[in-house]
């Protein structure tokens, strides 16, 4: 996989999905209740947080900025001199500026729309985080739900 991960187990989704080919990647789309669907073979991988995300670091950064702003407002109300340590919300950065937290290249460069990370319901009724697709992207895409999974679809193309 290249992200320092290890295979945990092979699983199947609950039979509530359709799978579409978006060229080099599959899109797993959950179907509305009662609309039918299929179960697909998946792999669950354990990945180090450093390899896939920055959500916890970003949340900590935002939390500390909010706390800093609260403290600055409180000291201003008490008549303390204003200091310029607060850098404002993340959206105030110029678009070319790097984020103030370390995001992995995997999230920054590897997960692009119409794919996303989301909850995938498994046949044992548990959920795991995994790749899902946005429904707008599958309009006109090849429905490959007749295959047991992405690997089987790719094997059929050889």
Sum this structure up briefly.
The protein is of the alpha+beta class and 158 residues long. It has four helices and seven strands, in the order E-E-E-E-H-H-H-E-E-E-H. The protein is globular and about 35 Å long.
What can you see in these coordinates?
- This protein has 158 residues and is of the alpha+beta class.
- It has two domains: 6-50 and 110-156, Roll (Hypothetical upf0131 protein ytfp); 54-78 and 87-103, no CATH class.
- Helix content is 25%, strand content 25%.
- The chain contains four helices and seven strands.
- The chain has helices at 49-52, 55-77, 105-110, 150-156, and strands spanning 6-12, 17-21, 26-30, 41-46, 115-121, 127-133, 142-143.
- Strand 5 and strand 6 (127-133) form a beta hairpin.
- The longest helix has 23 residues, at 55-77.
Side by side, the strands of the main sheet go 3-2-7
What best-fitting shape do the alpha-carbon axes yield? globular
Q: Can you give the helix content as a percent range? A: 25-40%
Q: What fold name stands as the CATH topology of the largest domain?
A: Hypothetical upf0131 protein ytfp
CATH architecture term of the largest domain: Roll
Give the topology string: H per helix, E per strand. Answer: EEEEHHHEEEH
How far apart lie the N and C ends? 21 Å
**Count of extended strands:** 7
Strand content: 15-25%
CATH superfamily of the largest domain: Gamma-glutamyl cyclotransferase-like
